[in-house]
Amino acid sequence: MARPGIGIWLVGAKGGVASTTIVGLAALKQGLTPPFGLVSGLPQFGHLGLADWNDFAVAGHEIRDVRLVDEAMKLATTSRAIDPRLIEQCRADLAEIDGRVRPGTIYQVGRTIEGLAGAEVPRGESPRDAIARVREDMAGFVRAAGLKHLIVVNVASTEPPVDLASVPPTWAELEALLDRVQECPLPASSLYAIAALGAGHSYVNFTPSLGSAPEAIDELARLRNTRHMGCDGKTGETLLKSVLAPMFQLRNLRVMSWVGHNIFGNMDGQVLNDPVNKAAKVASKDHLLGEILGYKPQTHVSIEYIESLGDWKTAWDHVHFAGFLGTPMTLQFIWQGCDSLLAAPLVLDLIRFTELAHRRGETGRLTFLASFFKSPYGVEEHGFVRQFQMLEAWAAGEAAGE
Questions:
Q1: What DSSP string runs through 182-215?
Q2: Which tens digits make up the pLDDT trace of 295-311?
Q3: DSSP conformation class of 26
Q4: Per-residue model confidence as pLDDT tens digits over 142-189
Q5: What dotted CATH number matches 237-337?
Q6: In terms of CATH architecture, what is 6-233+341-399?
Q7: Could you tell me if 105 and 133 are in contact, meaning their C-beta atoms sit under 8 angstroms apart?
Q8: pTM, full prediction
């Protein structure tokens, strides 16, 4: 059944994850691809009446001066991850969406991301001015497309970490800092969150950046009767950790050390090659082991930029654990996958589930989406199966009309 228009606003709209999401959505609309990789396509969610792919329109923000079709084609020519014929079949959709992408903000994104920005991106904006500008961009899209609801998804590059303790705990206190360029601790991801939530839109932070994590921004979401969730999409190595660590815990096998080495060559890898930006990603990938196991083994996570790999990410993990009689044993695994193709279907899933939460009138943090994130807001459970059961329970509640 067709519904009123639903908007998708992608922050980082021409990056690898965004362009793959857009190609994927266009392909799904045209019936060119099966729903592999889509959690929302599983049978247990078939009764929910999730939005149809044709219900969605796409726009967004981007800081680089590039064409969407060219960025999508890199996944075919450089990474050899997508059939170029599929991109050609979606070319008209890409061109249309390209015309709806507006210059983003680079407020406190760090020098590496700032160095990627084109000439059209404003410099020297105050946080309040940046929020007003990007909010008007979103509002213009809503008006032009006749949308009933907009879901803003941050899929931009990882910003340098921000100490949550530096962010005031209430919205009133935080709002007062938006005119103070030297005092406001918020990065761009949080300005997008404030712009979206303040206007009543939904916001999803798929990155390790600060986004809507502060309590003050959650308060804003509740004040505006809207919703948000994050952070950092759980797509590869950390997904495996969240599955394997409960196994060690439930079999009472003592993990002594867990080393993970990650190499990849896409734009995200280029940005994470800066140690300042890398710090946020490493923290997001490393914390869950201790929380699942109940103790902290020795851990090490490395992320290295290897340009020739393109969008293909390889993770090699070495797990050293003690079994019966204290005998040391080892598990090693290698995970290789196309980074953007692992992430894009989850972005589409999050959009569909968030849209349904909007129809249900749910506000604040959408904790039932925990299984999609490395560091889910407001959730202490990090085992993947138990997190997924939260999603299934939410779906069952919807079925029962709860």
A1: TT----HHHHHHHHHHHTT-EEEE-SSS-TT-SH
A2: 999 999 998 999 898 88
A3: H
A4: 999 999 999 999 999 999 999 999 999 999 999 999 998 888 999 999
A5: 3.30.360.10
A6: 3-Layer(aba) Sandwich (3.40)
A7: yes
A8: 0.94
